[in-house]
Amino acid sequence: QVQLVESGGGLVQPGGSLLLSCAASGSGASGSGFSLYNMEWYRQVPGKQRELVARITTGGSTNYADSVKGRFTISRDNAKKLVYLQMNSLKSEDTAVYYCHCGMNYWGQGTQVTVSS
């Protein structure tokens, strides 16, 4: 079992930045377990499907949705069992609930990001 808890969401003006964090815990993440998971950030707006925003593999390779390339950066700290999403140059269309995900079906509860003036 892996528990994921996101934090760092909030209200920010267009062009601003936010840093999201996701903390992993549980038996599946203990010891070196966390390092064995690819980690992902998804986002969802009401009425739409959850979409993949960024992925970081066990080896540190990263992938991004086209809509966030060049603005968002995913990273991980295996020792602290944390994954981050640095979001810069935020746009109104980035407004969503952001979720952390790993494994077959481990999800966090989500953190709201609202980009508005």
Strand-pairing-aware structural class: mainly beta
State the separation between the terminal residues, measured CA to CA: 40 Å
In round numbers, the mean pLDDT is: 95
Compute the gyration radius: what is it?
14 Å
Number of strands: 11
Low-confidence stretches: none
Largest sheet: 7 strands, mixed
* Helix content bin: under 10%
Order of helices and strands: EEEEEEEEEEE
Query: What share of the residues does DSSP label as strand, in percent?
Result: over 45%
| Shape call | globular
Q: How many H/I helices?
A: 0
Provide a descriptive summary of the structure in words.
There is one protein chain. By secondary structure, the chain is mainly β. Helices cover 0% and strands 49% of the residues. It contains no helices and 11 strands. The chain has strands at residues 3-7, 10-12, 18-25, 39-44, 51-56, 62-64, 72-77, 82-87, 96-102, 106-107, 111-115. Strands 2, 4, 5, 6, 9, 10 and 11 form a 7-stranded mixed β-sheet that branches. It is globular, with a radius of gyration of 14 Å. It starts with a strand and ends with a strand. The mean pLDDT is 95.
